[in-house]
Amino acid sequence: MDILPIGQAKLSRRFFFSSASLFLTLGPAQAAEEAGIVTAVQGVAVAETRPTPRALAENGSVFLEELLRTGDESRLGLRLGETTSVRLGARSKLRIDRFIVNAGGELRLGSGQLLLDGPEGGFPRGLIVSSPYALLAVRGTKFFAGQLDRGFSVFVERGGVRVRAGGVSVDLGPGDGTDIAHPGGRPEPAKKWGQPKIDRAMALVN
Fold first, then answer.
1. 183 closest CA partner among 126, 122, 111, 125
2. How far is 18 from 104, CA to CA, in rounded Å?
3. Contact status, residue 134 vs residue 180, Cβ threshold 8 Å
4. CB 37 within 8 A of CB 57
5. Where are the alpha helices (DSSP H) in the chain?
6. For 29, which DSSP code?
7. CATH class in words for 6-14+77-203
8. pLDDT tens profile 28-72
9. Which of 16, 29, 119, 135 could be a cystine partner for 164, CB 3.0 to 4.6 Å?
10. Among candidates 100, 101, 36, 20, which has minimal Cα distance to 68?
């Protein structure tokens, strides 16, 4: 299943943010609001819209609530707002639930891998990345998250990420990573990653 259960997502969000007004509420008229543009496509990448999936091409737009999907041996580059870039690896699925330019938002990674490079000053309204494995609370940062080896991994190159899974939280700083063996499992304690593991992760999105 690609999307975090609704009850779990709501509970986890309350853990990270005390204000219910953190994000703007999206109404039906906002469903086609532009979230960003495509900066690079390698292989096959589509936006799963009804009734027909839409092929993604460089300089094309992506919109809120679209499910973005890459094919085998494919890559997709995005720019959200003015300063946030995202790279997706092969067989990845990403939905942009909310994104307020230069302020923050909420992304759902259903499968695969992403590399997110955010603004140096952080996201004033916070950024959440949810997945079937974990919920990530992001502070202005560059980080990798996704399937690596036989589980799910998060690695921070710059900034910080709080990883919430299995009822516990792990805080990651620059150079730190953690692994989660399966959905519902707990993240391992933060530890410094060696260059070979970093290289394996980055090869999946570059």
1. 111
2. 16
3. yes
4. no
5. 6-16, 195-203
6. G
7. mainly beta
8. 334 468 889 999 999 999 998 877 889 999 999 999 889 999 999
9. 135
10. 36
